[in-house]
Amino acid sequence: MKRSLVALALIISFFNLQAQENKQSEDSLTIRKIYDYNLLQGHSYKWLNYLSNDIGSRLSGSLNAQKAVEYTKKQLDSLGLDKVWLQPVMVPKWVRGGKEYSYAQTAPGVTRDLNITALGGSVATPEGGTKAKVIEVQGLEDLERYGEAGIKGKIVFYNRPMRADNINTFDAYSGAVDQRYAGAMEAAKYGAVGVIIRSLNLRLDDFPHTGSMTYGDLPAAQRIPAAALSTNDSEYLSSLLKVDENAEVYFKLNSSSLADVQSYNVIGEITGTEFPKEYIVVGGHLDSWDLGDGSHDDGAGVVQSMDVLRTFKELKIKPKRTIRVVLFMNEENGLRGGTKYAEIAKQKNEDHIFALESDEGGFTPRGFSIEANKAQFEKIKSWSNLFEPYLIQHFIMGGSGADIGPLKNDKIVLAGLSPDSQRYFDHHHSANETFDQVNKRELEMGAATMASMIYLVDKYGFNSSNSN
Question: Does the N-terminal peptide bond of residue 298 adopt cis geometry, omega within 30 degrees of 0?
Fold first, then answer.
């Protein structure tokens, strides 16, 4: 009897193993088709070319942002999806105004021009500009040390660089971004007349990098102008202050904030054949900063996400669950699009099981960062061998994406595509972020990687979904 039971167990084990191997073989073939299709017939590069070169930068509330809404909706309409629509969302409208100007003065009549740009949301300088002595600090924590006596009436120069020894460049960015985001708000409390921030960039160049900032609850009368300084000029200014602590800097900003305007998230979906009330989201953000054309941040994520649904349609992959592409508006200076999408989803009691965002540039994909419980993460990690032929092996527990963050609950799995990040901050939020900096093959590899992950999640779901 014991021998019979052992034999039966071995037979069952064999057939289970055989079934698992068959599934893996089937998945491997499908994923190969997905990569072949995107590398041979993908549309992401063509779409990005239009977004970047025919439309250009897409600052929230701008005419170009509206053109991007209209263009991407038209492209989604052409794919034969089950539904395409615009989701209204009110967004902030900040205007840069005329080009900024700055110089350092070392002696009467002796000046050197500096490369600066206003931070997104900054107030303008007075009409004649701002000119004052400069105090260099290494971060927000330095302000208390100098106090009002050392800061009042001066321009605060935040010069803490991103750490070059941090292999994960997004960690390096996180370690320095607080001075850009909160620098003006904190310096104003000590009586500073303006702030200049070292650009968040790992290389030395002449491109200032903009980005979002906040004044918190500071009254309008206490708000001070804030600008980013190129890394080369940050090095120069720091050296100058070491030999002449009385050196002055002049800068002129012309920016202003206007009333909120209406914009849209662009959404399209393929309805699931078995579980249409379970939703899988893939997306990126349509808006960009205004210095370059927004190709990496986040035109790449937008077109890759669109190509995921195009891949499913063209390869006739019929998903079990409803797959939705969401092109979010206003990630850069408000997160209004992501917040609105999550708000509406909650109102409709929609069951989102997975959301994937691409917002780290169009470089070579390396893997995924995943926000999930241990069981969910292990399930995704078990698929990693299917990505190894494409040299995509980096599956980690970590962050996902800003736009999908508002969807977070105790059930949904959130993920971010993780491309190679070593060159990303060379271009991030600067005039150097242009279409010619995007490699066609790298962009298409990213689209294929996203489509493959969506295929696997749709096919197998998670423990909390109906199919398990």
Answer: yes
